[in-house]
């Protein structure tokens, strides 16, 4: 097989886009530690605030030390956003910073954005790899068994439903109403009902 990137020439970056999903920080941590310890990649940049962070926000160097405890925190340490996908500005930034591996964590919109970035990179003839990491709290990707964050969402749903159940049972004719997320997917609700 052919090695495409030598470790010491890799300059990776990670960006998170779209809505929050439990486990985002764990994925960032695994990427950083995997790149660093398994592939000896020392230059890893966090892009803050989603796609627009490439050209309008700060960046933060990521090392195993920086990400050591982040899996215990919710959200994403890099921040996230919707909109702001300006392809040429993003690829300009990738080119200017000398980034050659782009790790994009996000939902379907984010992955569409990653494909457009890749097309522009190819058009410019740059030696840059783009990797998409699918993020969906709804577990609605048929080719994988379970997406990260889904179990946590079901657990949280369980907590809310149990509390409403206790309230409803404690009074005469009590009714508990819990609204769960996912009007189009609904797998969080379905799994709980099952
Ligand atoms: N067709 C597209 N082309 C380029 N960029 C896109 C496209 N669709 C979405 N994006 C960009 O991807 C980012 C995230 O998109 P979006 O808000 O749709 O969330 P998502 O990735 O689908 O996640 P979620 O499942 O949480 O909604 C935004 O910055 C948006 O501008
Ligand atoms: O409950 P609602 O309003 O349908 O929104 C939930 C949806 O929003 C998202 O979190 C982001 O689009 C989906 O993953 C989820 O299905």
UniProtKB/TrEMBL annotation:
The keyword Nucleus does not apply. Pfam families: PFK. InterPro entries: ATP_PFK, PFKA, Phosphofructokinase_dom, PKF_sf. Its cofactor is Mg(2+). Residues 13-189 form the Phosphofructokinase domain. It catalyses: beta-D-fructose 6-phosphate + ATP = beta-D-fructose 1,6-bisphosphate + ADP + H(+). The keyword Repeat does not apply. One of its GO terms (cellular component) is cytoplasm. One of its GO terms (biological process) is fructose 6-phosphate metabolic process. Keywords: Allosteric enzyme, ATP-binding, Glycolysis, Kinase, Magnesium, Metal-binding, Nucleotide-binding, Transferase. One of its GO terms (molecular function) is ATP binding. SUPFAM superfamilies: Phosphofructokinase. Catalyzes the phosphorylation of D-fructose 6-phosphate to fructose 1,6-bisphosphate by ATP, the first committing step of glycolysis. PANTHER family: ATP-DEPENDENT 6-PHOSPHOFRUCTOKINASE 1. This is ATP-dependent 6-phosphofructokinase 3-like. It comes from Prunus avium. The lineage of its organism: Eukaryota, Viridiplantae, Streptophyta, Embryophyta, Tracheophyta.
């Amino acid at each position: 097989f052919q090695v495409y990137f030598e470790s010491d020439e890799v300059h990776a970056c990670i960006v998170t886009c779209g809505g929050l999903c439990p486990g985002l920080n764990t994925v960032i941590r695994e990427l950083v530690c995997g790149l660093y310890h398994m592939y000896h990649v020392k230059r890893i940049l966090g892009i803050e605030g989603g796609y627009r962070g490439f050209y309008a926000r700060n960046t933060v160097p990521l090392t195993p030390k920086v990400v050591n405890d982040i899996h215990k925190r919710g959200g994403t340490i890099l921040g996230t956003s919707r909109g702001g996908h300006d392809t040429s500005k993003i690829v300009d930034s990738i080119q200017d910073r000398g980034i050659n591996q782009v790790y994009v964590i996000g939902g379907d919109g984010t992955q569409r954005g990653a494909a457009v970035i890749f097309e522009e990179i190819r058009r410019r003839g740059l030696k840059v790899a783009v990797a998409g990491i699918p993020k969906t709290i709804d577990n609605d990707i048929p080719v994988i068994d379970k997406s990260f964050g889904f179990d946590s969402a079901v657990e949280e749903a369980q907590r809310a439903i149990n509390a409403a159940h206790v309230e409803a049972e404690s009074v005469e004719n009590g009714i508990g109403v819990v609204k769960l997320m996912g009007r189009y997917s609904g797998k969080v609700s379905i799994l709980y009902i099952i």
